[in-house]
Description:
Blueprint: H1 2-33, H2 35-44, H3 53-80, H4 85-105, E1 107-108, E2 111-112, H5 116-144
Antiparallel strand pairs: 1-2
Amino acid sequence: MRKSLSQTSVATASAVLLSSVLLVAAVVDQIALRSLGDHAVALYAPHGVPVAPGVLYALVDAVAVVGVVLWVLVLRAVLSGRRSAPVLAVVAVAITVTLAAVLLGATEYGAPIFPPVWGVLALLPPVAGSVAVVRLVRRRSARVG
C-alpha cells in the first residue's frame, strides 16, 4: 500500500513539475527568445492587425498557473490520504487537458494562434496526472473490493 502511495505521489508531483516547466518556458521565451511573439507577428501582421504578443504570453502563463494550482491541490490530497484525491485528480486532468486542447486547437486566419510546442508542453502535466488517477482508482478499488 505504501509503495502505491509513493508512486501516486511521484506521478502527481511530476504533474506539478511539468506545469511549472510550462510556466518557466513561457517566461524564458517572453524575456529572451520571443518565439511566441515572432509567431504572433507572422500571424497577424499580414492582416493588418496590431500585434499584442503579451496577451498570448498571458494566456500561456494562465494555463500554466492553473495547472500548478490544480496539481498542488491534488498532491496535497494524495499526501494526506483524502478520499477526494481521485475525484480531484480526474477534475485536474479534465481541466488541464481542455486548456492544452485550446492551446493546440485555437486558430485565427486559418493558422494556429499558438505554435504546437505550447500545446504539447501543456499536455504533459495531464499525462502525468493520468498515471496518478489510475493509481488512485486502483488503490481505492483495492480497499473497497
